[in-house]
C-alpha cells in the first residue's frame, strides 16, 4: 500500500482589474498492489535465497583465502583478541588428512579388538 499526498497550486494575476487569483488543490492518493501471479513471487524468493547462499559462500571463501595467506606469511591473531576465532577453523589439508587417517586407524583397531 502506498499513500501519496499532493498539492497543485496556481497563482495568476489577470490583466483585468478583477485582481489576483489563487487556485489551490489538495488531496491524496492511496494505491493497493496485489500480485496476480504467485509463481513469480515464489521464483523471486528462490532467486533471493540462491543469491544469499552465493554471497555467504563468497564471504567464507574470501575469509579462508585471507586467513591462509596470513598463516603462510607466519602471522595469526592474538589468542585473547576478539578476532582470534576468525581463522580458527581454517586448517591445512595435511592436518585434516592426518587427523582422518589417525581416527580411521583408531576406529579400525577398536573394531578388530571387539
State the low-pLDDT regions, or none: none
Which word captures the global form? Answer: elongated
Number of helices: 2
Count the domains. Answer: 2
Q: Could you give a short account of the major beta sheet? A: 2 strands, antiparallel
Write structural notes for this entry:
A hairpin with an 8-residue loop joins β1 and β2 (21-31). The protein has helices at residues 38-72, 93-113, and strands at 2-12, 21-31. It is an alpha+beta fold and 114 residues long. The radius of gyration is 34 Å and the shape is elongated. The protein folds into two domains: 2-31, no CATH class; 38-113, no CATH class.
What's the topology here?
Blueprint: E1 2-12, E2 21-31, H1 38-72, H2 93-113
Antiparallel strand pairs: 1-2
Keywords:
single chain; 114 residues; alpha+beta; 2 domains; two-stranded antiparallel ribbon; 2 strands; 49% helix
Structure summarized in a few sentences:
This protein is an alpha+beta fold and 114 residues long. Helix content is 49%, strand content 19%. It has two domains: 2-31, no CATH class; 38-113, no CATH class.
